[in-house]
Amino acid sequence: MSSDLKVRGGIPAITGEIDYTNAFHIFPETLKPFRSSILAYSSSFLSTLIGFPLDTVKTRMQTHKNFTSYWDCILKTYSKEGIKGFFRGIWAPIVSTSFSKSFSVSIFTAVKPECYSLFYETRFNKDTKELHPFLRNIPVCFVSGLIAGAGVSLFACPFEYTKIYAQLEKLVRNKSLKELPAHMQTSHQEVPRTSTLAIVKQILKHDGFIGLYSGYKYHLLRDAVSTGFYYSIYESMKWASNNVINADPTKSSPFSVLIAGGFSGVLSWVLIFPVDTTKSLVQKDAVTNILRRDQGLAPLPPKHRKLQKFEKRSYRGLAISITRSFLVNMVFFSAYEAAMVYLA
After folding, report:
1. Is 343 helix (H, G, I), strand (E, B) or coil?
2. What percent of the chain has pLDDT over 70?
């Protein structure tokens, strides 16, 4: 895909060509067509594992007001649940996020040459050919990322919802216990079911298959728009950094990948965070009613959540999310770019 776009005059998608003089040949011929997807999955698996504890803190801060600070959330989670509390529900997202990232990269690199052709190589846009390649690349990246994010969201939403369920289950369960008569509270204090399969069964039991897509319209909006920003910012920052460091935007440096990877995650999250907060609150409402019905309590009336505005409340949990996003995307792009160059 990279070489195809290069021939057309655009900036290659994400990464350049293999360095065959220094590459390690580890892929058999049967797997070489899937090389990019396998490397994207592996890089995402590593970065998701590293960033998951921070994601747990972010979700709890977004959905619960009883934590006075990030440190308070960390201490209370550790004191009541131990280290395992930070990794509740990890298996669904560590598998799904890695697949999602792999799909996203594959869709983006496949769609980008077509978007470039549509934008700049039809008879309706001849005047745009005088634009600098840097400027021409931005709208192509954004639309390609928009398509990739929207496509991946259909697969990712059920997995992310089960993750949210696992992260919030104990907090929500303990809160609803207070409404039960005293003699019933002890019998409902069992350890929450934290396996992904048990959570899926619980969701299907109470809300059916459609329940797995709780908050989907906000998930779709978040993934589509943030992925558009994500790839646009990454490629633009890397191109500009390479131009400064190497005086050649096509020659990538490890430093430019680190910086561009970290900031693409941070800036795209800042821009879309209120949507993510709304999604988390909608999914928290769904988790709350499932657990209430499970405990014999009446479900709460629907809250009909509206999209959070750009105000302080909608950015609760942003700081920890920025830290996580910078770390996760720095690790992902560094690992992926290096693997794409040196693993053949």
Report:
1. strand
2. 85
Collapsed DSSP state (helix, strand, coil) of residue 24: strand
Domain annotation covers residue 291? no
Contact 291, 199 (CB under 8 A): no
Nearest in space to 221 (alpha carbons), one of 169, 166, 282: 282
299 within domain boundaries? no
Q: How many domains does the chain have?
A: 1
The span from the CA of 83 to the CA of 192, in Å, is 16
Does a structural domain hold residue 292? no
189-207 residue pLDDT tens: 554 556 888 899 999 999 9
CB 214 within 8 A of CB 245: no
Residues 284-340: tens digit of each pLDDT: 999 989 988 887 788 888 888 877 666 666 777 788 888 889 999 999 999 999 999
Residue range of the domain that includes 123: 2-281+308-342
**Residue 279: which of 331, 328, 224, 324 has the closest Cα?**
224
